[in-house]
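Dear colleagues,

As part of the handover before I leave the project, I'm documenting each prediction I ran so the next person doesn't have to rerun anything. This entry is a single chain, and its sequence is reproduced below.
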Amino acid sequence: MDTQTFRVRTGATAGAFDITDRVAAFVRAKGDGLVSVFVPHSTAGIALVETGAGSDQDLLRHLEEMFPRDSRWLHRHGSRGHGADHVTPAFVSPSAVIPVLDGIMALGTWQSVVLVDTNRENRERTVLVTFLAD
């Protein structure tokens, strides 16, 4: 098993950050196996979604609609509505496992590996990628 970590600057607004190239570089030339992509944060997740055609922005908009940033949340530390950030990973998992064939992720034509971060208070995230050879 081979593991690597990298950091992603997310900024002060909710975002969907395409990390496909970084994961692809990690698995390149590793042969067949599985790659696990994991974000060890209670307010972020990993999604496989199309980017650049609006799907990533649709995802963020729907998360905002499902989890409005108001005072309904019992989890209340941080800014108003921050409790919504702590619910998001129950719907956008903190991890994804992707098959790797001959050093290439077996993603669909329009799939990208995306870090989804709705938390406006943390501006940098750690991503762990682990390769398990066949």
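The beta strands are 2-9, 15-18, 33-38, 44-49, 95-101, 104-105, 112-117, 124-133. Residues 63 and 88 are 7 Å apart (CA to CA).

All the best with the project,
I.
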